[in-house]
Amino acid sequence: RKEVEQDPGPFNVPEGATVAFNCTYSNSASQSFFWYRQDCRKEPKLLMSVYSSGNEDGRFTAQLNRASQYISLLIRDSKLSDSATYLCVVGGYNKLIFGAGTRLAVHP
Amino acid sequence: DTEVTQTPKHLVMGMTNKKSLKCEQHMGHRAMYWYKQKAKKPPELMFVYSYEKLSINESVPSRFSPECPNSSLLNLHLHALQPEDSALYLCASSPNLAVQETQYFGPGTRLLVL
After folding, report:
1. CA of B23: how far to CAs of B7, B12, B55, in Å?
2. Cα–Cα distance between B23 and B4 in angstroms, integer?
3. Whole-number Å distance between alpha carbons of A38 and A47
4. SS3 label, residue B98
5. Burial (0-12, 13-18, 19+ Cβ within 10 Å), A106
């Protein structure tokens, strides 16, 4: 079993749609959780950290369920510029574990 | 300023060449990382430096040799690489290693080994 598993995608959605990505992790001792965004041929960039209480940043909402070892990312009112690969990332003591990423393509 | 810089942006080298990749950050971060990323795959951790000391080597072949001259700089020396080593090499930094914090990535060096 992979340490961090994500929906494989790709997700093809129209502008304005709401899309949700899911992620599960295997190590219950994991300490930190993130969503990174990576555009084609660019570096990963932090989208948001994920907390047990949930957190929201504009159109983006992230949730963490420690009991189920599950992380989610919700994107509302999708924009063309949201097209990218979204990486679920889980932090252990001294390194980050990356999921394989979920590709999102938003079309007009 | 959350910027990590990397040079060169692109590098083409033969299998007998020796080259170096460079990474720099001025955020006062004490942990720095090298990752390798192949197309359509997530980044794979190669090395971690904490307070200029090598903390993690993820069983990387010896043809890759990291160096941390000071707290702001991280190098990756390349020698006798193979074509399968062609990839995007990403440098990242974070405030420290003890408590895992956000890593900030540089733009990467796209390496092609012929």
Report:
1. 7, 18, 17
2. 7
3. 9
4. coil
5. buried
Q: For position A1, what pLDDT does the model report?
A: 74
Q: Do B100 and A100 touch (CB under 8 A)?
A: no
CB pairs under 8 A between A and B: 48
Q: Which residues are bridge partners to A31 per DSSP?
A: none
Tokens found for residue A21: 């990505």
Q: Which amino acid is at B8?
A: P
C-alpha B84/C-alpha B106 separation (Å) is 22
Cβ distance A87 to B42 less than 8 Å, yes or no, reads: yes
CB-CB under 8 Å, B106 with A96: no
Distance, C-alpha A39 to centroid of its chain: 14
DSSP 3-state percent helix, strand, coil across chain B (nearest 5): 5, 55, 40
Which member of A46, A87, A95 has the closest CB to residue B45? A95
For A17-38, the pLDDT digits (tens) are: 999 999 999 998 888 999 999 9
pLDDT digits (tens, 9 = 90+) for A54-63: 899 999 999 9
Assign A108 a pLDDT band (cuts: 50, 70, 90).
very high
Among B42, B55, B106, the residue with its CB nearest the CB of A99 is B42
Q: Residue B100 and residue B109: Cα distance in Å, rounded?
A: 25
